[in-house]
Write a structure and sequence with these properties.
Blueprint lengths: L1 H4 L14 E4 L5 H4 L4 H12 L3 E5 L22 E2 L4 H7 L9 H7 L3 E2 L10 E4 L2 E4 L5 H14 L1
Parallel strand pairs: 1-2, 2-6, 3-4
Antiparallel strand pairs: 5-6
Length: 152
């Protein structure tokens, strides 16, 4: 609990001290992550210095509005996955969430991929960008991130 009470905010983080960022999921991040400029700055800095950017499930919402120094979206032209619209509908929450994250990723130029069957583990790696589709993908996503970090 002591660690939780002193968790640094994004403005207190020096991206130079890290080699990767891993966005976790949960529906709440659909509201919290996309417009968080501090998280965007950390992500951009890590990406542009050659670090690993990763997300699982709804965590990919943290990448929705992240732009690189040239103004382009980090996800533009890159393969990515995250909680699918089909999974939202099957979970019965499609009417309660603020947007269709899958469609928003595609609108930003991401090459969105998903598993043939909903709720199956599915990980997509595009260079240093690693994303997992749903909660069942968390372990495989983390393993891919660790493998990339071990290569560095």
């Amino acid at each position: 609990m002591a660690l939780l009470s002193s968790t640094p905010c994004p403005a207190d983080i020096n991206p130079g001290d890290y080699d990767a960022i891993y966005f976790t999921g949960g529906h709440g991040v659909m509201w919290d992550f996309p417009d968080n400029e501090g998280l965007q700055a950390i992500t951009r800095a890590l990406w542009e210095k050659g670090g690993v950017v990763s997300a699982v499930c709804h965590g990919y919402c943290g990448l929705l509005n992240t732009r690189l120094a040239d103004g382009s979206f980090l996800v533009r032209g890159r393969k990515i996955t995250g909680f699918s619209w089909t999974e939202e509908r099957l979970a019965g929450v499609a009417r309660e969430i603020p947007y269709n994250a899958e469609a928003q990723m595609k609108a930003r130029g991401a090459i969105y991929e998903k598993a043939l069957l909903p709720f199956m583990s599915h990980v997509v790696t595009d260079g240093r960008l690693v994303t997992g589709q749903n909660p069942f993908s968390a372990r495989a996503t983390a393993r891919k991130v660790v493998a990339l970090l071990n290569k560095a």
